[in-house]
Amino acid sequence: MKTVYAIDPAHSSAQFTIRHLMISNVRGDFKSVKGTVVYDPENLAASSIEAEIDVHSLNTRDENRDAHVKSEEFFHAAQYPSITFKSTKVEREGEGEFKVTGGLTIRGVTKEVVLKVEGPSDEAKDPWGNIRVGASATTKIKRSEFGLTWNAALETGGVMLGDDVKIELDVELVKQAAA
């Protein structure tokens, strides 16, 4: 049976990790994640995910770095205020594990990515009577493939930022009323 869920922005997040100075990882997150998940466990072809992340909600715990990453040298948030994902295929990988293929659009560039998804959790009823489930997803992208090419050479060799970006999503979904 097909069920429609809304991503709860107050209880969902998108985090990323990137190599800095070739010696450590720097993490950041986006505080605004929204979208819709359609889940049909008996007919995965009828399942889908559409999500939108507000680039302006970026937080790396450093205001100057946040401003730089939102600038034209990186996300160019003024022109491209959203990162979006739209699934094209959902496949079961095991009990509570899925492979979701879809188009990830960053800075106006869309590339196919595969999300490794764990979930959905068992349903839970919140104090207001809503039915909720949770899920987590991970993927890895090359930022250069999305036009995020800014970098700086280091005097000691190498570059300031790695090209690989790990992405982790944690979402809480609210079941929507049947149409």
Automatic annotation (TrEMBL):
**Gene3D superfamilies, per this entry?**
Lipid/polyisoprenoid-binding, YceI-like
User: Which Pfam families does this entry report, sorted A to Z?
Assistant: YceI
State the organism named in the record: Edaphobacter dinghuensis
* Residues annotated as domain Lipid/polyisoprenoid-binding YceI-like: 4-174
Q: Which InterPro entries does this chain map to? A: Lipid/polyisoprenoid-bd_YceI, TTHA0802/YceI-like_sf
The protein's name in its UniProt record: Polyisoprenoid-binding protein
